[in-house]
Design goal:
Strand content: 25-35%
Structural class: alpha+beta
Order of helices and strands: HEEEHEEEEHEE
Number of domains: 1
CATH superfamily: Regulatory factor, effector binding domain
Shape: globular
CATH topology: Multidrug-efflux Transporter 1 Regulator Bmrr, Chain A
Largest sheet: 9 strands, antiparallel
Number of helices: 3
CATH architecture: Alpha-Beta Barrel
Strand order of the largest sheet: 1-2-7-9-8-4-5-3-6
Helix content: 25-40%
Number of strands: 9
Radius of gyration: 19 Å
CATH class: Alpha Beta
Distance between the termini: 65 Å
């Protein structure tokens, strides 16, 4: 009985911590876009140009995402730049993650157990106040890139954003695009909006696919 009460208290504390982390993450800057179409969980958006810091790792999706996140966090929090006055860059949301190999099929994503040697790109969007000229110099393995304006189809979902969820959501998004005569112009990109301490049911994730312009 006593053990059950302590477990319940621990779960409540974890939930409160997750809610606080969720509120903090939802309040930070996100990429600017205009919503053109909304259809339940699906949207068609026009994104403004943005600057991203990106790094590439090889391996399965979750490990590559974790490695990429830590590496980019070290850059924006000035861990790679010595000196007490090193400029820190504000965190934004979401973290963007994309497979870089050519093995992915446009209508049939590869399962996780076949990804052991694949390359994955992780991106942090830089706050809109920065230009390429004023951002701190990144280390050799991190690239600062200007991403042009682009049209993207998206599907939003909650959960931990595991590989099976990403595959299922990508297929649903591609079906919706086909039904609405939207032509893909590139590979899917996965967007993770919340910190790891946020409980799975409260996490916001998206799959985004670039759309060929008219």
């Amino acid at each position: 009985m006593l053990l059950g009460k302590w477990m319940a208290i621990a779960l409540c504390i974890a939930a409160l911590g997750g809610a606080a982390a969720l509120a903090q993450y939802r309040s930070i800057e996100k990429p600017a876009y205009e919503t053109l179409v909304t259809d339940e969980a699906f949207e068609l958006r026009d994104y403004a140009p943005m600057i991203v810091a990106e790094v590439t790792h090889t391996g399965d999706q979750r490990r590559a995402l974790s490695s990429g996140f830590r590496r980019l966090a070290a850059y924006i929090f000035a861990e790679d730049r010595p000196g007490a006055e090193a400029e820190k860059i504000a965190m934004t949301s979401p973290v963007l993650h994309q497979r870089q190999s050519e093995k992915i099929a446009m209508t049939s994503p590869v399962l996780q157990n076949s990804e052991q040697g694949e390359r994955w790109r992780t991106r942090f969007v830089m706050p809109s106040k920065y230009t390429l000229e004023v951002l701190p110099e990144p280390p050799a393995d991190i690239t600062l890139t200007q991403v042009p304006a682009r049209r993207m189809a998206s599907i939003a979902f909650n959960g931990y954003g595991g590989q099976r969820d990403l595959i299922a959501m990508e297929l649903l998004l591609r079906e919706w695009m086909a039904e609405n005569d939207l032509v893909p112009s590139g590979h899917a990109e996965f967007a993770f909006y919340d910190a790891p301490m946020v409980p799975g049911p409260m996490r916001r994730n998206e799959v985004l696919i670039p759309v060929a312009s008219d």
